[in-house]
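cache lookup: miss for this entity combination. No prior model stored, computing from scratch. Input as submitted by user K.M.:
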Amino acid sequence: MKPESKRQNAPLRPGAALLAWILPGLGHIAIGQRRRGWLMMIGILFLFFSGILIGGIDVVDMKQDRLWFIAQACNGPIAFIADFLNQSLLKTADATTQARLTSLGNINSTGTLYIALGGLLNIVLILDALGGPDRSKEHPARRGSDS
Amino acid sequence: MTLLAWIPFVTPMNGLQSIWYVLLIPLAFGIAMSYKAMRVASLQNYWRQVGVMTTQVTIGIAALGVLLMLFVRLLLPLL
């Protein structure tokens, strides 16, 4: 049997996909691919927190950067928490504090991009958790170009 | 004084404005780390694969940047 047809017959795992959205990598951990899951989690969270570290809390903004937020929301609830903190702490602050905590130019773009790319990458990981191959017992022959 | 006023994850790092392009390297590293965790058949060579992909993405985007600069500064003025 070819690997492709094996993959077509693999059962879908909606629970793992949901877990992967709730916390990146958690879906893979739940289906027994623990080391991969931890590495994915560290990678996505690294992008997320690096984005906030670079651009401040201002880079996640559902109201002002709606299109970017669609991609950022794929990081899971952490994106919504960051937006809530932005709206409740930064946007309600006085003008001086807002000016001090708002990122500018390339720094704002870079921070926004970090989190948006992490979200888009998490879509791939969610789809892999949903219908990807079972790697809980390593498949050495899979995708030889990467080995 | 400026550094003392900086609160991580709250205050933006606006001081990096002039060297923002260096931030491409950790971005490529984060992407490679997550992507390769899913993509590689065996995790034995994982970190080497992450290093290769980080280098490829960084060089690729830098090359695109150089090509775009040449297009804008040299080719477009000729039109």
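stored under new cache key. Chain B has one domain: 20-78.
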